[in-house]
Amino acid sequence: METRTVFCNDIALRILDFGGVGDTVILLHGAMSRAANWFDVACWMKDHFHVLAFDQRGHGRSGKPVGGYSRDDFVRDLVGVMDSLNIRRAHLLGHSLGGLNAWVAASMHPERVESVTIEDMGADQWPAETVDQWRSWFDEWPLPFPCLKEARRYFSSIRPSFADHFMELLEERDSGYWPIFSFDTVLDVLRGIAAKPWWNELRDIRCPTLLIRGEHSEILKRDEALAMHRALKNGHLAEISAAHHVIHDDQPERFKEVVLDFLLQTAPRDRAVAR
After folding, report:
1. SS3 per residue for the chain
2. So where are the chain's domains?
3. pLDDT tens, 233-245?
4. CATH class entry, domain 2-125+185-271
5. Tell me: the pLDDT tens digits for 93-145?
């Protein structure tokens, strides 16, 4: 794996190049997360494709500007990364926030996107109180965590499936363990998501699109997923049993099966490596 930094739109963006050959797949993480969250996915995907991920603005080791978290900002960053690395077209796979950014990018720049995979993200406008609810939850975090054991106990008490995901988002400082992200930045990101419904952008997608829903997801309800599938011009829908919001962590083998089947059918055979 190679790590590099590119500068575009006045910020530094940290990129993880996992290697591989064939078509490029760009992995876009969710809110609060980072590119490294895709490590396990990239390990099997690079057997078939060239795989990249990057810390999106406000996340991980990339720049965290004050403001500038609209969909246009995220899409400009994605296109800037592609331009910096001389990538003409790519498959986009995004979780949650990353899924939304992927489908908006496909609607705005159809000439740059081969396919879109959306992991557990809806198109409905969020209720007005959503961001305030997130702020209240952040205020409850008993920071700093004195040790990783206490952090795991806290996140597991909310929901066991949360623990592994959030444990990856902590870093050790002199006073204890803190999140690698800024709460204020994440709230700005969430306001950008909640600003409007995203159905028009979804309907504008021309390329093959896979929507994946976790059976127990509280973010993407089944009725909304079915409506999104109907709205897509070339859409595919998969619901993965016994999974919540972070499907690639909850059910990694089933996630691999569904995604790989879609991508190998979508990518021209001479550009994907069948193994």
Report:
1. CEEEEEEECCEEEEEEEEECCCCEEEEECCCCCCHHHHHHHHHHHCCCCEEEEECCCCCCCCCCCCCCCCHHHHHHHHHHHHHHCCCCCEEEEEECHHHHHHHHHHHHCHHHEEEEEEECCCCCCCCCCHHHHHHHHHHHCCCCECCHHHHHHHHHHHCCCHHHHHHCCEEEECCEEEECCCHHHHHHHHHHHHCCCCHHHHHCCCCCEEEEEECCCCCCCHHHHHHHHHHCCCEEEEEECCCCCCHHHHCHHHHHHHHHHHHHHHCCHHHCCCC
2. 2-125+185-271
3. 999 999 999 999 9
4. alpha beta
5. 999 999 999 999 999 999 999 999 999 999 999 998 999 999 999 999 999 99
